[in-house]
Amino acid sequence: MSIEFTNTPWLLILAGAAGIGLPFGLIAAATRYCNMGAVSDWVLTGDPGRMRAWLLSIAVAVAAVALLEAGGVFDLDQTRVNYRAAEFPWLRYLLGGVLFGMGMVLAGGCTTKTLVNIGQGDMKSLWAYVVVGLTAAVLLYWPEARWFVDQTLAWPHFNFEAVSIGHQDIGTLIAGIVPAGTLEHWRLGTALAVSTGLVVWLWRLDGGRQMRRADVIGGLGIGLVITAGWLWTGSPTGQHLMGEAALAFDPPMGTGTQSLSFVAPAAEVLRLAEDPAIGLVTFGIVAMLGVIVGAGVWAVMRGHFRLQGFRAWTQFVSYSVGGLLMGAGGIIAMGCSVGQGLSGSSTLALGSLIALGGIVLGAFVTLKIMLYRALYPESRRRSFVCALMADMRLIPRRCHPFRDEAPSGAPPNGCSR
Q1: Which of 94, 106, 226, 397 has the most Cβ atoms closer than 10 angstroms to its Cβ?
Q2: Cα–Cα distance between 135 and 225 in angstroms, integer?
Q3: pLDDT of 192-236, one tens digit each?
Q4: Are residues 383 and 293 in the same domain?
Q5: List of residues 6+ apart from 343 with CB closer than 8 A
Q6: What is the pLDDT at residue 416?
Q7: Residue 131 placed within a domain
Q8: Where are the alpha helices (DSSP H) in 235-312?
């Protein structure tokens, strides 16, 4: 497949993708915005700063998207990744999210942080992203693997059309249950209520203390960039450009209303390397490259650009396994911590919210296990399981095997014994 450089409409779409990816990379690098870092700071040190930034970015995107959609600027019922589809494979969302969350801990960061690190010269993150792309490519383009993901993992599902509900976003679900009001009103009201609730929650996370300036800038900036992705591809201008591009003799790939996501573009880059036809250049690829360039510009400006490599085989293995889990989880969940955690969540699709919860859960469990193994190396595995259950309030706190123990490496007392 190829597309001539004379396909001006598609080149304009790609220019917009670069203009969206660049500020994303700059903001993420400047404010240390990272979804995995948000979870790790909160879990390991009790610092909710970056978690507040993540919640703020979701709140901003949810409110902005709802207001623009209510104003008729775009329609997110039909997007490239159909976040609001009536088909609801709940296990796929949850499993993919958990796998991705585990992987981003092992790989030293989410896909956002991985791309930022690449821009700052980190070859470890480059390798992890290559593994993400290889894994994603296998699951997307190998027929047997694609069948397994789309059919087997999607088996436990529910179709909302069976109960006369056309989409899975929260506003539509409420409108389908409550007879009063219109779908548009329920969607806007639900989005504004969710956005307000998130702002209240993120404020209470640190006892009402003022947010750090970097976290405010990161949350506001990333939320607006996600909205800009929807605006550029879904607005009348973007739709017109995509329609014109599709009329070319060899139409481009990756058309459709979309915002940022970083797992599928890693696979698309590998296809581009295999077949350098310009037709394989997608919105996602250019946006992803824009993130790397934006982070690189910030690193050079601040004197932070440093080439870094692996220092031990254990580190190589960890990043490799992490990249594999992120690639698999991102495809299974139909999005990563950005694709589902920000772009999908901004539509208030139920599946996106489940995937987001799975990402946080996977990261939480992995971080806790790594922490307990480091502090209590002589403890039994059963102790770790008991500790995790107590941390998640699944069993009484008094049963936590490490609650009265100093990290001396000695086996702890507790219910696990």
Answers
A1: 226
A2: 27
A3: 999 999 999 988 887 778 899 999 999 999 999 999 999 999 999
A4: no
A5: 61, 81, 83, 226, 229, 230, 258, 259, 260, 261, 335
A6: 38
A7: yes
A8: 236-246, 264-274, 283-302
Angle 392-103-44 from CA coordinates, rounded to 5°: 45
Q: What confidence tens digit (pLDDT) does each residue in 367-384 have?
A: 999 988 888 887 777 788
Residues 274, 207 share a domain: yes
Residue 1: inside a domain, yes or no? no
Helix 264-274, helix 123-141: angle, nearest 10: 80
CA distance 122 to 107: 12
Distance from C-alpha of 336 to C-alpha of 96, rounded to nearest angstrom:
9
DSSP class of residue 392 equals T
- Burial of 180-219, coded b for 16+ CB within 10 Å and e otherwise, reads eeeeeebbbbbbeebbeebbeebbebbeeeebbebbebbb
Whether residue 151 sits in one domain with residue 32: yes
- Alpha carbon distance 377, 380 (integer Å): 8
Kindly state whether residues 323 and 217 are assigned to the same domain: yes
Number of domains the chain is built from:
2
Enclosing H/E stretch for 198: helix 183-204
In this structure, the number of other CB atoms found within 10 A of the CB of residue 316 comes to 15
- Helix/strand number for the chain, H first, E second: 16, 2
Q: Region 291-302: what's the mean pLDDT?
A: 97
Provide mean pLDDT across the span 150-163. 87
Residue 413: predicted pLDDT: 42
What is the reported pLDDT for 406?
45
Residue 2 resides in a domain = no
DSSP secondary structure string, 38-105? Answer: HHHIIIII---HHHHHHHHHHHHHHHHHHHHHHTTS---SS-SS-TT-SEE-HHHHHHHHHHHHHHHH
Residues in the chain: 417
- Looking at the structure, tell me whether residues 181 and 151 fall in a common domain: yes
State the distance between the two ends of the chain, measured CA to CA, in whole angstroms.
62
Closest CA to 111 of 280, 242, 261: 261
Residue 411 CB-density burial (10 A; 0-12 exposed, 13-18 middle, 19+ buried): middle
Q: Domain limits at 305?
A: 8-375
Eight-class DSSP state of 158:
E
User: What token pair was written down for 144?
Assistant: 């047997």
Q: What are phi and psi of 122, to 5 degrees?
A: -85, 105
Asked if residue 415 and residue 321 are part of one domain, the reply reads no
Whole-angstrom distance, CA of residue 365 vs CA of residue 207: 25
**Same-domain pairing of 91 and 119:** yes
CA distances from 84 to 157, 199, 343, 351 (A): 14, 24, 12, 8
